[in-house]
Amino acid sequence: MSEHENKLKAAGNKAAGAAKEAWGEATHNERLEAEGKGQQLKGKAQKALGDVEGKLGDKS
Predict the structure, then answer these.
(1) pLDDT 10s digits, 4-24
(2) Which residues have C-beta within 8 Å of that of residue 25, sequence separation ≥ 6?
(3) Sign, CA torsion 41/43/44/45
(4) Cβ distance 53 to 31 under 8 Å?
(5) Phi-psi bin for 28: left (phi > 0), alpha (psi -120 to 50), beta?
(6) Do residues 34 and 24 touch, judged by C-beta distance below 8 A?
(7) Nearest to residue 45, comparing CAs of 7, 2, 15?
(8) What are the φ/ψ torsions at residue 9 (nearest 5 degrees)?
(9) Which of 1, 16, 42, 60 could form a Cys-Cys staple with 5, CB 3.0–4.6 A?
(10) Rounded CA separation 44/21 (Å)
């Protein structure tokens, strides 16, 4: 996946995760809240991967 694809997917995962977490908190659904937190972490990891790909691309 390219740098931009990873960063785009990261943004989507972070936004969806935040929404799930908020909905889980509002409805007292601990499973959904945890899922949201996990999805946000996945988004952060994807962004980090995109950042690394960008740095490597700059050096090529």
Answers:
(1) 999 999 999 999 999 999 999
(2) 33
(3) positive
(4) no
(5) left
(6) yes
(7) 7
(8) -65, -35
(9) 1
(10) 15
Nearest to 44, CA basis, from 22, 16, 11, 18: 11
Domain boundaries, the chain: 3-58
**DSSP per-residue string spanning 1-55:** --HHHHHHHHHHHHHHHHHHHHHHHHTT-HHHHHHHHHHHHHHHHHHHHHHHHHH
Banded pLDDT at 59 (limits 50, 70, 90): low
Separation CA 27–CA 20 (nearest Å): 10
DSSP 57: H
Both tokens assigned to 24:
């889980």
The pLDDT value recorded for residue 57 is: 84
